[in-house]
Amino acid sequence: MLNLLCQAEDLAEVLQTLSSDLELKMITNRGVKVWPNGFDETFCTDHWRCRYQKKDTSVVQKKEVVEILANALDKNIDAIKTENLYDFDGKRGYSLGQGQ
Question: Do residues 14 and 77 lie in contact, with contact meaning Cβ atoms separated by under 8 Å?
Fold first, then answer.
């Protein structure tokens, strides 16, 4: 796996290259926002949550998620879980991350 030694900035640099249509919005570690504008003092483990969103207001297509996962694999980044974020009847059906 990619060894980034718990450096959120280094991880974000790589993750931002995985999609041209989706934008990396944030990275959390143990529920704490570590990118962007995280604190160097935050203790990180090797379990990151990375949230991508569409750059415009269009709906994310499933093939775009698969593209990110395939590109991550090409860069030796392992994804252990994915979670799609849905709106229901115009209301957000997911929690915002810290600082969103």
Answer: yes
Confidence of residue 40 (pLDDT cuts 50, 70, 90): confident
The whole domain housing 19 covers: 8-77
Domains identified in the chain, total number: 1
Neighbours of 18 (CB within 10 A): 20
* Rounded (10°) CA dihedral 41, 44, 49, 55: 30
pTM: 0.84
Task: Extract the runs of DSSP E, i.e. beta strands, from the chain.
Answer: 22-29, 32-35, 48-54, 87-88, 91-92
In angstroms, the Cα distances linking 40 to 27, 64, 75 are 14, 31, 25
